[in-house]
Amino acid sequence: MYKKIQFVLTFFVFAMIFHLNAFGLTASQETFVNSFNNAGDQSTYANSIPLPYDDCSDSYTGINDPHPIKESTVIINNTDCYPDMDAYSFYPTTSEEFVFSINASNSVTIEITDIEDNILYEFCAEDVLESEFIINLPFDYFYTIKVIGYSNYAEYQFYLLPVTDDYGNDTESSSEIQIGSIVTGNLISTDDIDYFSFVPEKTGAYKLNLVSPHCYNLIITDSNGEQIHNLACYFNLTRDQKYYIKVWNEDSSKVLSYYDFSITGPLEEDYGDTISTSQSVYTNQNIQGSIYHSGDYDIFSFNATSIYCILEVKGVPYKNIELYDSSNNLVICYDGIEYISATKNLAIDEVAIQHKSIVCYDNLQVGSTYFLKIGGDTDPTPYTFTIKSSLDGYNDNSYIFAKTIDVATPVTGNINSYHKDVFRFIPKLSGTYSINFLDILHLDFSVFDFNSYSYLDPIFSTQVNSSRYNYELEKGKTYYIFIYPYYETEYSFIIDGPLPTPEVKIGDVNGDNSINSIDFANLRMFLLGMINTFPSPLGQDAADINQDGSINSIDFAILRQYLLGIIDTL
Length: 570
Hints:
Distance between the termini: 133 Å
């Protein structure tokens, strides 16, 4: 019974082979030729083809039944033994020049042969590691692509892409495109430039959307060839004017570059972006708006009813808010606070950052007109703001609202990140004042001289690591102490002063309250340039023995005489 079944199966296989070769073509070659005769049957080769296990010829010495492929088809396969060869037949139809793209293991080599098995192109192991080549395959001939494996298993993929100059290379031969449509193309060399033209129906801001990775150059010019200035791919364009898009590639390492883009717009804008189109607002009026792109600015005008202008803005970062007077001069923002909060949308696992800014101005001219400018964000940003002219209800987070403190009065507080506490201090006497922290804290602090509008040394931008910091302050001037935390923390400090002026003991350069050989040695090293300061803060004055305003060899000689007992006093 078993022998009968084996005989029947053998007979069936030979019958099929005879039938398929009766017309001089293998089964796959016949299918391949028929596919070209059937213009509607293109879907079979339209996408990537991951072939079954060893689906191609495995004859190392000849081609039994090469697998037919078409241009633009991505072949994904593997050699499965050693030695092994996979063979593919190819018949060019649209172009004689192709980009041959290979990504394979270095355990294979690839040959392209003509119908007489002459090798036209050969790619060795070093060539097949993700490479591209330009090859020429004339029409009306069959070609064979052989992938030869030199290991038990080697993966590979390749495709043949026709090289065609798809668009015109100058403005006269540019291709007209429509706003909103996606344009795709390729650059066949560094000398290839593609031009497109379009005419906006409305004046406004338009966005250039780059879909694929930016491995190419793209600019927009007007009809005179002048490049249109852009802000993060946003352009201000005029209706009924013709514009050109120029696409090119300077990267010689790429055989063929692909691109796709679109122009969308005009983008919506809710308020004017110039002084002449500004929106008039009033104090305590709640205004809502949106910044739609990086080139969108909303400008509002208001009349100052107080010397103060307090802006409460939600949605827009503090750095994107500006105030101008009627002469277009920028009004200095004397202080600003930005609170940042994050909310998570659990449905889409996205975190949104919310900004709330309080920006403070003073010394405004009552009755004068000022212009508020909001904008500068790349992404669409909704915002709200209110202009206030009263300080009532505000805390001490800015110098305008700072709490006035006095000497010998303990100051305590609790502060968290994104905030700062500000205190005002006006000395009643000139002199040295000490800010004493009760503990080493994780916060920064600085002292600001409001009169000279500058920070005093030392400025601490790292954690407070000492308990006492001294500053020279002048009577009647206004100073502000800023406290910045790393995270939520409590703090406590006190201001002492003016501190008593220490008495200078002539000759005691190291400050140990005695005059001896150690002071003599320090003075000698100072004069020899071995040191440039003395151990004591008062050492400079103590080393000027004769009090003539300079430290020199005369002071050294006098101190030597004193230590030798030649003189009794300094």
